[in-house]
Amino acid sequence: MHGSIRNELESLLEGTANPGHVKQHLTSCGECAGELAAMRDQNHLLRSWKAREEVEPVAGFYARVMQRIEERARESSIWAVFVYSPIGKRFALASLSVALLLGSYVVAQEKLDGHLMADSVVADTQVHYDAPMDGDQAQQRDAVLQNFAAHPDAK
User: Fold this and answer.
1) How many angstroms separate the CA atoms of 133 and 46, rounded?
2) Which of 98, 103, 134, 137 has its CA 20 to 30 A from that of 87?
3) CA–CA separation, 24 vs 8, rounded Å?
4) What are the DSSP calls for 28-64, one per residue?
5) Looking at the whole model, is its pTM more than 0.90?
6) How far is the C-alpha of 104 from the C-alpha of 111, rounded, in Å?
7) Which residues are CB-contacts of 31 (< 8 A; sequence separation ≥ 6)?
8) For residues 41 and 33, what is the distance between their CA atoms, to the nearest angstrom?
9) How far apart are CA 8 and CA 23, in angstroms?
10) Which residues have a Cβ under 8 Å from the Cβ of 123 and sit 6 or more positions away?
11) Residues of the chain above pLDDT 70, percent
12) Which among 28, 18, 22 is positioned nearest to 5, based on CA atoms?
């Protein structure tokens, strides 16, 4: 029964709950009454901290906050080492140079081997005609054997 009453304690503080059965339970249960008292104390404490008038931030506050967020994002990023430091830029340029050298070496070797400029065979131009497979099972078997025997790669 404590669970259902505890769920209604906030509603009781707001004044939206049916206080009849809740108040009856609170008179007999010291634990729930203590929790309600603690919630009232917290409510009063939070209300005492509330500003008497609405406070507006000074001009440029949001811009300074965003600038600090961006600065911290740059500092904390793993890529900041490569982008914002001179050593990182040198490392990136050295990596790019090595990649270009290796790529040009591979292309040069392929040209020397003849693989790069060789004529590639996309499809065989010799067309083989297979005999149609009509008729009963014996005729179809004979047509398959004839196709295997007459195929140019079978020789």
Assistant:
1) 91
2) 103
3) 13
4) H-HHHHHHHHHHHHHHHHHHHHS-SSPPPPPTTHHHH
5) no
6) 11
7) 2
8) 12
9) 11
10) none
11) 77
12) 22
Residues 101, 106: Cα–Cα separation, whole Å? 9
Indicate if the alpha-carbon torsion angle 132, 137, 142, 145 is positive or negative.
Answer: positive
Nearest to 106 by CA among 124, 83, 54, 98: 98
At 15-60, the pLDDT tens digits run 776 667 777 877 888 888 888 889 889 888 888 888 778 888 888 9
Q: How far apart are CA 75 and CA 68, in angstroms?
A: 11
Give, in degrees to the nearest 5, the angle at Cα 123 between 118 and 128. Answer: 140
Q: Are 147 and 130 in contact (CB under 8 A)?
A: yes
CB atoms closer than 10 angstroms to residue 154: 8
Structure tokens at 148: 């295997």
Q: Which residue has the higher pLDDT, 5 or 95?
A: 95
Per-residue burial over 39-60, b if 16 or more Cβ lie within 10 Å, else e, is: eeeeeeeeeeeeeeeeeeeeee
